[in-house]
Amino acid sequence: MEKEFIRNFCIIAHIDHGKSTLADRLLQITGTISDRQMVEQVLDSMELEREKGVTIKASAVRMLYRHSSGKEYELNLIDTPGHVDFSYEVSRALMACEGALLVVDATQGIEAQTLANLYLALDADLTIIPVINKIDLPSARVAEVAQEIQNLLGTPPEEILAVSAKEGTNVEKVLEAVVERVPSPRGDTSLPLRALVFDSHYDSYKGVVAYVRVFDGMIRPEDTLRVMSSGIDFRPVEVGIFSPDMRPVSVLSAGEVGYVATGLKTVSECRVGDTITSSTSPAAEPLPGFRHPKPMVFAGIYPVENEDYERLKEALEKLQLNDASLVFQPEKSQALNFGFRCGFLGLFHMEIIQERLEREYDLDIVVTAPSVEYEVVLRTGEVVRIDSPALLPDEGLIEEIREPWMVVQIFTPMEYYGTVMDLVRRRRGIFREQEYPAPNRVQLTFEIPLSELIVDFFDELKSRTRGYGSMDYHFAEYRPGDLVKLEVLVAGEPVDALATIVHRDQAYHKGQALVSKLKEVIPRQLFDVAIQAAAGGRIISRANVKALRKDVLAKCYGGDVTRKKKLLEKQKRGKKRMKMIGNVEIPQEAFLAVLGLEED
Ligand SMILES: Nc1nc2c(ncn2[C@@H]2O[C@H](COP(=O)(O)OP(=O)(O)OP(=O)(O)O)[C@@H](O)[C@H]2O)c(=O)[nH]1
Q1: Mutual orientation of helices 19-29 and 35-46 as an angle, nearest 10°?
Q2: Which of 65, 309, 457, 467 has its CA 20 to 30 A from that of 217?
Q3: What domains lie within the chain, and their CATH numbers?
Q4: Which atom of ligand 1 is nearest to the CA of 17?
Q5: What is this structure's pTM?
């Protein structure tokens, strides 16, 4: 289609403000999906099967829309990932667009995530169309929320749309506004090809399917193409659009959005942010802004049953096919045996992977406490990076330990100001500034070590603000800190998987809290078990798990042999979820005991 009839846009919203519902409604109004498919989709969501939903499967859908002027437009709706951990992916998806719908829940108003993505959209020079959603709810505060938006963006009230995505009210106006307000894409079909990869998925027949926005030139299925960052050349298996199913086309030209099935075997060969060009007449420069996202949070993942190791490995490999930012390598822990050290973009990314391993691959796993990556300067001058506390060298060898610091923005109603400040102070945070982007709301900016954020910070924020607080964070820099390894010894043996790195001032308090928590979760054995915490080579806390006196079999009066057998069987099964450390059984809860120590 002619460029002037193309519109590329996305939807930005805080979680649960109605992005998916609005997207589905737009697809339905334009006849892109049938009412029958729509019903299936609704059913899916009721069964918590939303991963299978149309909008989620195809993150760039082409719709055809006839405007009231009688002209037909090609509208490309590009999906953006919903979470802060994926802000690089969000920024690439935004770069593929000229406009954004800013969806704000009429009962909630503007939230931190809305702001974070809005700033990214403004950075990308997008035209913003504010949409207040859920006006059907009795608790909707349309006028108030419109005022918040006006204060923030200067949008006059008559340009702010008020809709109910659920009931369809005013949704047609959203499409009209996209046509009228979002600029048509620029780009020159006669220049050498440059197409931005803004998302991808792995298909077992077609290889990596790259979702692209063509900026210059054209893509034809018969061309040989090149991934610019790696120089890899390939012949596309197929070129097409999502409508919303994959549909082959004979050309994608400058301004258009679609997909290239590359036949490549892993998403790391054709990453988000990369530029695809022609291998016969390549562009001189790639599109700006490509980078490799770096994992920030690390944890060990171990099978509960040793024999599941291979299955776990295969599951991680499969997940990695679709997720270039998941990294893992084999790790051997003395306590947990064979498993994997995994790196994630953030805590939420880690939770998604953990849940997928359990739900989709039916694996029983133990996940160790998350850690950040430290930069350790040795006395020899050498700098080593460690992402597992167990690997920290002896204190005598260390000159300095540096840890990652983040900039965090917290958005909360004014009444929780004090409790949020207190939370941040307890987590070694440094206050930077405050702003008031909406009435009775404050946005606080802090610097805080990442290691403090990854232990229940978000949950704690939610509970302190009764669910109203929201946050956003990004990496700032590595800074030296007075850090020590906090070790745990069980029956005199250090347990590698229980070690953490903490600030020296907190070592004593955390050591004590950890020991008393472990005392609760480690079951009594046939003998006394000493649990000790040590920091900097000194024991700082100790507790005893008293020996179990009663013989389990004493309960079976005399002779009932089958009952006795059953009891022994049951005991044996119970043991399976335990890990033996020396001759002590440690249950999996113990490995996460370091989480949630903060507020005790
Ligand atoms: N009453 C009412 N509920 C709505 C409306 N739009 C969405 N919802 C509901 O709000 C909830 C969240 O909507 P989603 O569309 O899943 O929100 P989302 O922003 O896509 O959420 P994530 O996918 O989690 O980011 C769902 O229970 C919807 O049914 C609306 O206009 N009115």
Answers
A1: 160
A2: 65
A3: 3-181 (3.40.50.300), 194-278 (2.40.30.10), 297-366 (3.30.70.870), 375-481 (3.30.70.240), 501-595 (3.30.70.2570)
A4: 19
A5: 0.77
ipTM confidence:
0.97
Calculate helix-pair angle for 19-29, 171-181, nearest 10 degrees.
Answer: 80
What is the C-alpha end-to-end distance of the chain, expressed in Å? 62
Which three-class secondary structure state does DSSP give residue 470?
strand
| Tokens, residue 17 | 């403000």
| Half-sphere exposure in the Cβ direction for 459 (13 Å, CA) | 11
Q: Which tokens hold the place of 15?
A: 């979680």
Annotated binding site for GTP: 16-21, 133-136
Check if the beta carbon of residue 85 is closer than 8 Å to that of residue 345.
yes
Which residue's CA is minimally distant from atom 30 of ligand 1?
134
For ligand 1, whether the C-beta of 15 sits within 6 Å is yes
- Ligand 1 atom with least separation from CA of 167: 31
Q: Exposure of 581 by Cβ count < 10 A (0-12 exposed, 13-18 middle, 19+ buried)?
A: buried
φ/ψ of residue 595, rounded to 5: -75, 145
414-457 pLDDT tens trace: 999 999 999 999 999 999 999 987 778 899 999 999 999 987 88
**What 8-state DSSP symbol labels residue 394?**
P
Q: Does the CA dihedral 106-111-114-120 come out positive or negative?
A: positive
Sheet harboring 275-278: ordered strands across? Answer: 232-234, 225-227, 275-278, 194-203, 207-216, 257-261, 238-242, 246-248
User: Per DSSP, which regions of 87-193 are E strands?
Assistant: 99-105, 127-133, 161-162
Would the CB of 53 count as within 6 Å of ligand 1? Answer: no
Q: How many CB atoms lie within 10 A of CB 595?
A: 15
Phi/psi of residue 518, each to 5°? Answer: -65, -35
pLDDT in tens, 21-76: 999 899 999 988 877 676 655 444 444 334 433 333 447 889 999 999 999 999 99
| Helix or strand run (H / E) with residue 246 | strand 246-248
